[in-house]
Amino acid sequence: MTWRRRLLLGAAGVLVAAVATLAVLRGQGALFPGEDRSSRPLDLAGRADADSAEVASLARARCLLLSGDERRACLQEFLLALVEQGRIRLAIGTLGRLGARDAGIRRAGHEYSHVIGINAWQPGKDLGEVYGQCSELFQSGCYHGVIQAYFAWNGTDSATVAGLCTSSPVISQTAWLRFQCVHGIGHALVQARSLHLPRALEGCDQLRGPYDQESCYGGAFMEFIVGARGQSHHPRVGPPPADSAAEHGDHGDHDPAPAFALRDRNDLLYPCTAVGEKYRRQCYQMQPGIIYETANGDVGKLARACDGAPGPHRKSCYLGIGTYISGLTGRDAGRTIRICSLGDPDFREWCFVGVVKNFIDVTAKPGDGMDYCRLLEDPRIASRCYVAVGEQIAFLRLYMNDRRDACGAAEPRYVSACLFGAGLTGERPADLVGT
Block means of pLDDT (10 residues each) for the chain, length 435 residues? Predict the structure, then answer.
């Protein structure tokens, strides 16, 4: 054998070994050989001073070489290890850091945060205390998950549903936190009713007052959409085996299988066309997610389908387009502007409203919404955008002075629109037209 041939064979052997090593590393989710995948988050058990930047760096190193479902499972496992240590706030902060650097994680952030919340509460823990450790990041999915876990264990009888969101001072202290609670009830009811949407909506009717009921309907429709895709936000959380179920609070409201069609390929507006009128406003606001799925990802069909909604609900459907494409594009401002501009000129302003409200929902920072409004050239649409920012500020800020200060960061021309949205003035902005 010539020296050239020996050299080539030796190089090939090194390459094979390198590929094999890389395969092992991918399987472990580890950056370095021999690193134990399950040990990385546990290294922080005795570290009270660990911050989210440090932990996010560890998560990236641990899961960096994985892709697809394996990468998702690796990140979820890492976050849940923190939750098991009782470090819920650190888990949410770490997720926020990861999402800031990775568009894929950012798009799935709501689902990750749901799973954190679901696993944060366990029987025997104080609901309000656990709820208070969540944050608004990623559309408050952690809050929703805590509520889902509570109902999965305790059942959804009318007394539990009606009183939960008013029973804890932590939950009821602001409109924002109360909304997250009743919205979470909607998720939990669809979970408990095994995707039987009408029965879940009837459960929302047990809540007191139209505000709580409507908020619950929104959560129910959201869970119906993702659940029908097989992408429910939660692992199964609930009582022990059947022989001890009664003792531990399972009230038998988990249906064995859905008896309500999950999709109708011939009707882009289903299930809104199959539920009662009082549920339809919230349904149409969630419907663009189903339209996009049913139309095989054709964003051009979103507005065309919403144009077929009954007159009173076209506005809600356009709002839903904005909410959905904000998540779909990873909050890419330029792309959302282009997609919203495809719609009917009489309704497309509501698409922009849906976008800007979602921007603020994700981070709970009004400034993120104002940054978006500054990109809108049409004064009518920009004014509507700032009114929407003001509405979000009213939701986030309890005190009037805080609301006024927040609106002061708007462009001077649109401060009045923000104040109008925040309920601080009754003077309607001149640029604002329509309802």
Answer: 42 38 36 37 58 90 88 92 92 93 87 91 91 87 90 82 85 84 92 92 93 95 88 52 35 54 93 97 96 88 95 96 92 94 94 96 90 96 98 92 97 97 93 72
Residue boundaries of the structural domains of the chain: 23-40+53-107, 129-238+255-262, 283-363, 369-435
Angle at 72 between CA 71 and CA 74, to 5 degrees: 65
Tens of pLDDT along 131-156? 999 988 888 889 989 988 998 888 87
Give the position of tokens 């394996």: 70
Whole-prediction pTM: 0.78
CA dihedral 394, 395, 398, 400 (to 10 degrees): 0
Residues 101-107: contacts with CB under 8 Å, at least 24 apart: 101/56, 101/60, 103/330, 105/75, 106/330, 106/331, 107/327, 107/328, 107/330
